[in-house]
Amino acid sequence: MVKMESTEEQDRKLVLEFIHLLEKSKQLFNGLRDLPQYGHRQWQAYFGRTFDVYTKLWKFQQQHRMVLDSKYGLKRWQIGEIASKIGQLYYHYYLRTSETNYLNEAYQFYAAIRGRAYYSRAIKEDRPDLMVKKLRYYARFIVVCLLLKKMKLVRELVTELEKQIQEYTTTYEPEDHLEWSLVLEEIKGFIKAEAAVAVLHADSNPIVLSHSGSGSRLSPLTTPPCERSPHMTLSLQEILIVGSACEQAKFSELTMDMFRMLQTLEREPTETTHPMSASHGLHGHDASPAASRIPPYGVPGSKGYMENSRHYRDNPHKYLLYKPSISQLLVFLASGFKELPPGGALLLYMSADGCFSTTKHPEDYGYELGGLATSVKRDGVDGGGLACRGKSYKETHCLYPGDLYPFTRRPMFIIIDSDNSFVFQHIPRYFGQPLVVLMSPQDVPPAFQAEVQHHGSLFTLFLHSPLTALCYICNVGDVPIHHWERCQSYVDHFITEASRLVTRCRIDEIDQGYIDSSYVQFFGDDFLRTLILRFVFCDVVLRLHRGFRGRHMRPRCEPPLPSNELLEHPTLSHIIFQLATALDVRGHFSDGPECD
């Protein structure tokens, strides 16, 4: 009898311990939203504590599942909810650190929820809030799969989500049914826009390429070659990716341009596991992620991903801002500026609609030529464009070139994708630091205008996947895989030749026939070198394409890249003509470079 009481007492203590861990985990998780979104040290210790509690909770429910089932009444959806929270933890840690391995960890937990059907009986609980959790889980899983380019799984999940939304709407007739319908349409529109050009397998089914330079993350196979020189001193360390284009396809506060650019600025996740991670990742008995993989790659909060055996991360740190207010944008820029280590460079990428000036005779290039619309938020101030006492006030929610002047105290690489991009070509180098500005064409041929506005910018597509962009402007909708790989070899050849030409240009900051030292200093970084060379590809292609007439339909850069020695070099033009012939689109291109 005493033994029975002892067992019951043990079970009761186990249940109480589980309840304590569950409440503690919820409390810590809810506190994550109050952490500052910028800076590094301010939030890491809190993430570390949260990971620690979820590690204990996950292990605890695995080790004591039978007791919790019988004495606590633990339901499968509750296990699913814990796994979903851990998946969210990993996803947000990926967003804060830019380390793609954490994205894989989020995927493992989300996939386990689906594989074990933890939410399968949610509709039978007669709880609409539980169904909403299930729908949110699907939306989050889709985002992770999109970022990992698991497009076949994305389509399966969208089909399942649509079915779940119908079931939710029919059963509960909820007030938010229209919101979920909009979420579904947003996802479908995003997937359609993302597939600019289909690469076809032998059976004519579309496939997703991950290591062929087709717009995937950087890998040893896709990193452009480089003849190193002592001048190549800088490393990209901080990135701000801003998406403010109004009509562009988006999902989960990621516009298409942001989605493409963030992948362009990441390396492929590594397949090797950290010693703290489970060797196989999943337990055979229930296909649940192993507790020992929480957290891998060093304890979050220790900043070990920066300070252990190396001073630089595999991926530069990124901030993603969707339609920020101007104050948010400047705060995040200042944070990136502050966090730059010695020898580090800051990259600002902005995809936005133009704010146009009505000043007829501008004297101040910093503020009188217009800029970029950040968002419709006014930061508590009345809108701009108001006339008062004969003076025209500037738009308060617009980023002007002059707003960036203070940040040029450190090496800065700027990419502007807008119909008002050229106003950023006049940023002065007051502080003598390396500065490069890549600017998109301000216009595209009428045939592309509507699609480009919704499906994502052509310029960003060139920087993300040069071959996809060339196919797109030549109306090539699908390409067989063997043919794609052959065409990709021409792109690789172009990039190799362009890299050779850049490194052999003489360095000077004044003479037109020379290359500015800023390019050379940035060229040693794999990501910045890739962007510079893909910019060259874009410029050469649009210069030769018959449909892109006029200077406003071609990109610009500041400082200018040398023309004869690089942009109009016959070797590069010849490779483009070869590529066009291989794609059977030679008729889209002129016989020689178009003259201004």
UniProtKB/TrEMBL annotation:
Region (Disordered): 269-291
GO molecular function list: transcription corepressor activity
Pfam families per the UniProt record, alphabetical: SCAI
Biological processes annotated in GO: DNA-templated transcription
Membrane-crossing residue ranges in chain numbering: none
InterPro entries with a match to the protein in the record: SCAI, SCAI_metazoan/Viridiplantae
Name assigned to this protein: Protein SCAI
The organism of origin for this protein: Stomoxys calcitrans
Recorded name of the encoding gene: 106092912
